[in-house]
């Protein structure tokens, strides 16, 4: 972990520093690597836009899960959280074009997906942002109201 985060005083960046100590995700060799705010303090539950902005302040972006390998790593990493069924924002969204989900940080279509059964359902015609939640014992994807407050997963290059 680079020392630059050690200089940062804010709680949010402290979260990054702490999570960088967590093994597993950091063993992923392909960039970008992922980090998650695992310490559940109030301010880490934010809407999708706020989450995106916070990730940007960390020189990163909301995470994109572009293949099964990353999905499995995240599922394994977050396994201890499963009983609480936390919801985590990803960068996926169809804000620009209903039903056409893209990863915000790359602009690429979500070719790899792990939707929960029956999702995405565009509930109440108001679900445009992608979150992870627990379904069937696994973290799976769902489309959700972007203004809901969730935890979030960022990614950045190291
Ligand atoms: Ca949904």
TrEMBL record:
Cross-referenced SMART domains: CLECT
Record PROSITE patterns: C_TYPE_LECTIN_2
Pfam families with a match to the protein in the record: Lectin_C
InterPro entries (UniProt xref): C-type_lectin-like (IPR001304), C-type_lectin-like/link_sf (IPR016186), C-type_lectin/snaclec_domain (IPR050111), CTDL_fold (IPR016187)
SUPFAM superfamilies per UniProt: C-type lectin-like
Ranges for domain C-type lectin: 47-155
Top-level taxon of origin: Eukaryota
PANTHER family linked: MANNOSE, PHOSPHOLIPASE, LECTIN RECEPTOR RELATED
Protein name according to UniProt: C-type lectin domain-containing protein
Organism of derivation: Glossina brevipalpis
């Amino acid at each position: 972990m680079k020392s630059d985060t050690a200089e940062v005083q804010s709680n949010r960046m402290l979260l990054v520093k702490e999570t960088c100590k967590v093994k597993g995700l950091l063993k992923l060799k392909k960039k970008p690597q992922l980090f998650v705010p695992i310490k559940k303090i109030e301010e880490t539950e934010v809407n999708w836009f706020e989450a995106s902005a916070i990730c940007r302040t960390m020189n990163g972006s909301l995470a994109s899960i572009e293949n099964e390998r990353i999905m499995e790593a995240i599922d394994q990493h977050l396994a201890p959280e499963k009983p609480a069924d936390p919801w985590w924002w990803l960068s996926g969204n169809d804000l620009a074009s209903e039903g056409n989900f893209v990863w915000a940080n790359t602009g690429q279509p979500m070719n790899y997906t792990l939707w929960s059964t029956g999702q995405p359902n565009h509930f109440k015609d108001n679900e445009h942002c992608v979150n992870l939640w627990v379904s069937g014992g696994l973290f799976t994807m769902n489309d959700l109201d972007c203004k809901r407050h969730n935890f979030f997963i960022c990614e950045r290059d190291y």
